[in-house]
Design goal:
Blueprint lengths: L6 H6 L4 H4 L9 E6 L3 E6 L1 E2 L4 E6 L12 H22 L3 E5 L9 E7 L16 E2 L2 H20 L1
Antiparallel strand pairs: 1-2, 2-4, 3-7, 4-6, 5-6
Helix pairs in contact: 3-4
């Protein structure tokens, strides 16, 4: 598949869907579980496994983490680690994966994915494009539990 025809505009931020959406509580794909000074984190409903979250940079438009100042990078990194820690505590996965690419959406964001003993690709990355809609009640309960852990981690 070729790069998007409007790639240059997307990289420049003039056609960036993540900038354009603002800081919503819910998106078409997830519900917010953490809003910090620099990022929002969404628990994704469409996923291969429970505990799949995406941390989205909410400062100025940047594509690469190398575009952040040292202070911004530290803040963003702390958010990513807070989310990973909450996912570990909530779901007790075998492993966590952290993925920052931006090949489809050129705006800084990091996928935090729980990996389990029975997941569909042990030892390998999860296959792209394959996901299931998690049951809404379970997804919302998971989001509530993660919010509580993330609130608790802000005070400890």
């Amino acid at each position: 598949m070729p790069w998007a025809s409007n790639w240059d505009e997307r990289v420049a931020g003039t056609a960036c869907e993540l900038c354009d959406e603002g800081r919503p509580e819910e998106t078409k794909t997830g519900t917010r579980i953490l809003a910090s000074a620099v990022a929002d984190t969404y628990l994704m409903r469409r996923a291969l496994v429970r505990g799949y979250a995406v941390v989205v940079w909410r400062g100025r438009h940047v594509v690469e983490p190398t575009e952040l100042s040292p202070s911004e990078a530290a803040q963003y990194g702390r958010d990513v680690l807070r989310v990973g820690h909450a996912i570990q505590r909530c779901f007790r996965p075998l492993k966590l994966n952290y993925l920052t690419m931006g090949n489809w959406t050129p705006h800084l964001h990091t996928h935090v994915t729980a990996r389990y003993i029975d997941d569909p690709a042990p030892g390998d990355p999860l296959p792209a494009g394959r996901s299931e809609l998690l049951p809404e009640d379970q997804w919302r309960e998971d989001a509530t539990a993660l919010r509580a852990l993330l609130t608790d981690s802000a005070t400890t």
